[in-house]
Amino acid sequence: MQEARQRLESDPLVQHYIQVLKKLIAYKSIFAQETGLTETAHYLKGIFQAAGAQVILDTSYRAPFLVAKFMSKKADAKSLIFYNHYDVQPADEDQIWTTEPFDLDIRDGFMYGRGVDDDKGHITARLTAIQKYLEHQAELPVNILFIIEGAEESASVDLEKYLAKYQDKLRGADLLVWEQGIFNKDGQMEISGGTKGILTFDAFVKSADVDIHSKFGGIIDSSSWYLINALSSLRDQSGKILVEGIYEDIFPASEHEMDLVRKYAQVEQDDLEKIYDLQLPLLTKRQDELLRTLFFEPSLSIQGIKTGYQGQGVKTILPAEASAKLEVRLVPGMHPQKVFQQIQAQLIRNGFEKVDLVYTLGEEGYRSDMTAPGILKVIDIAENFSDNGVAVLPTTAGTGPMHQVFHALQVPIAAFGIGHPNSRDHGGDENVKVTDYLTHIEMIEELIRSYE
């Protein structure tokens, strides 16, 4: 840790962009709360222009979109794209932070702050790498483009429209480096190539004009029981989704993809039980089934339920209204709108036509071809920056707009970055290791050098 801190403090260029990161984190750029987006985008525009990039800042939609280009003078130069986002999750009072979440704090070999891993720290690390390369070389051997959006934490609202607008200028790249990644618990750099998709929707039930005295509970159905029974009819006790046709469109995992997950995925039942202090049994007990479900199959989850009286004491009522927020994690082949319609139809078949569903957001899943030449190059380079080896995963269990980006740009996509298993993205004390931040700078610089 001491060596990492010394390297951080002794390199003026690294230190300069640490100060940039400090200011960037100070911007509370939260799409869900409609705050800080324009200011953050303009700050980034100035930073990239100062670094020598040609910058387009498009404010057509709610979250401004940034395209920054560092162009090579080589006539036959290939192109490398970095996808990032400047929006972050809230850091509200329900989270515990040791220090102010929007102040970058460096202590004990770690950097803390909202967005330091997801995803602002990756922006400054990659920008640092470009400038470090140019300290020793007169020009870049490859065109480098950044595309930076401001709504990733809200299902990348309007990203598809921005990509359609600029896809002709961005297509034909050799590789796209995704927003982030981690060093796993064994110290291996993870290189992954996919994300699950997501569908979110709200469910509403109204059973009467007013709450009813609960003495009628034996003869009158309530909104709460009706909704609970409706939701229960959509999933069995093992977690399988009981919706007709929902599994038919799935692109099944190949044996090679399963082998990669078996070899490199750092997910085991005992670890999950310890990390989260689980009080309920897992839905699956076999390791192979756990991995297949987590990485390659959809899941239906209830984010929250609201109904009835929650105050002090007792209120003997049958609630007239009940609602829930739900999500389906999608895998490649599944389309959000179609899945939503399938769920609506299933509820009617199950006898729950009184449940009103409202679609809120959706994006498709994607898996990379991990044998693409650009990705194989990244894997080869990573071997020199990860002493414990490299973990290659065809997808992650998380969600992001990777399908949207691939569909628009048709470019191989690989994700790697500065996080670790306890980076606490979206939680209190979000953090990265200083050593991993510096390693990412060095690896990106070497990736640039590989195009010489």
TrEMBL record:
<dbReference type="GO" id="GO:0005829">
    <property type="term" value="C:cytosol"/>
</dbReference>
<dbReference type="GO" id="GO:0006508">
    <property type="term" value="P:proteolysis"/>
</dbReference>
<protein>
    <submittedName>
        <fullName>Succinyl-diaminopimelate desuccinylase</fullName>
    </submittedName>
</protein>
<dbReference type="InterPro" id="IPR011650">
    <property type="entry name" value="Peptidase_M20_dimer"/>
</dbReference>
<dbReference type="InterPro" id="IPR002933">
    <property type="entry name" value="Peptidase_M20"/>
</dbReference>
<dbReference type="Pfam" id="PF07687">
    <property type="entry name" value="M20_dimer"/>
</dbReference>
<dbReference type="GO" id="GO:0009014">
    <property type="term" value="F:succinyl-diaminopimelate desuccinylase activity"/>
</dbReference>
<dbReference type="GO" id="GO:0009089">
    <property type="term" value="P:lysine biosynthetic process via diaminopimelate"/>
</dbReference>
<feature type="domain" description="Peptidase M20 dimerisation">
    <location>
        <begin position="194"/>
        <end position="347"/>
    </location>
</feature>
<keyword id="KW-0479">Metal-binding</keyword>
<dbReference type="GO" id="GO:0046872">
    <property type="term" value="F:metal ion binding"/>
</dbReference>
<keyword id="KW-0645">Protease</keyword>
<dbReference type="Pfam" id="PF01546">
    <property type="entry name" value="Peptidase_M20"/>
</dbReference>
<dbReference type="InterPro" id="IPR051458">
    <property type="entry name" value="Cyt/Met_Dipeptidase"/>
</dbReference>
<dbReference type="GO" id="GO:0008233">
    <property type="term" value="F:peptidase activity"/>
</dbReference>
<keyword id="KW-0378">Hydrolase</keyword>
